[in-house]
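Data deposition worksheet. Section B asks for the primary sequence of the deposited chain exactly as it was used as input, without tags or linkers unless they were present during the calculation. Section C holds the resulting structure in token form. Section D is free text for depositor observations; keep each observation to a single sentence. Incomplete worksheets are returned to the depositor.
Section A, Depositor: J.P.
Section B:
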Amino acid sequence: MSGHSKWANIKHKKAAADAKKGKIFSKLAREIMIAAQKGGDPESNIPLRAVLQKARAVNMPADNIERAIKKGTGEITAESLAEKMFEGFGPGGISVIVYALTDNHNRTTADVRLVFNRHGANLAQLGSVSRSFRRKGLILVDASQVEEDRLMEVVLDAGAEDLSREGDRFVVTSDPSTYPNVVEALARAGISTESAEITMVPEAYVPITDKALAVSVLKFIEALEDLDDVQAVYTNLDIDDRLLEEIQSEI
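Section C:
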């Protein structure tokens, strides 16, 4: 889990920076819209509640959240969005899965292909990469707010698969089927989460130890994430903490 949870930490820090520019709000609005299609009440719609936690963690304005929920429930007319997946191989041979929500498949495909081409990466057939990933619930909890034994009791009783510590955060993983139960159990216990999502976890990781290659890989992933239609990028990248710290100013 170390590689993926480390990438989750990178994304968490990046989300906070992006929020200052307002870049992340439109992506979260789309995610809220999709979740709200199953109901606009977060008390009964656990996926919506999890997305709202993400939105509030980056201080997304309440008006934006309310408008996105209403678009999802149909109270406000909104564009019709469809899911689209891309798979491929990036610099250093890393595997990449790109998840997008789009109202124009041709535009999204062209945008993603352009980023791959510019960074010397290659798109692949659907299934060639994703077969080595597994869907998992991934939850990050600030380690300063709860004792490990207490957290373990709460999440394991709710059906979580594993609990580990990565630096100043606890990482909770679960099967997608039990993920809503774990999120609900944490809420009932008064334990707030830094992030909570259903994600794609690789079966094996590709370690990147060369500084120049690490910068190239992270710039490639960031370019994909910066596309308007891209909601998430999943990868089997693993970068050592010291190297990551060293190159932060270059990405």
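Section D:
Residues 10 and 207 are 15 Å apart (CA to CA).
The beta strands are 82-89, 95-102, 122-124, 133-142, 162-166, 169-174, 195-202, 206-208, 230-235, 237-239.
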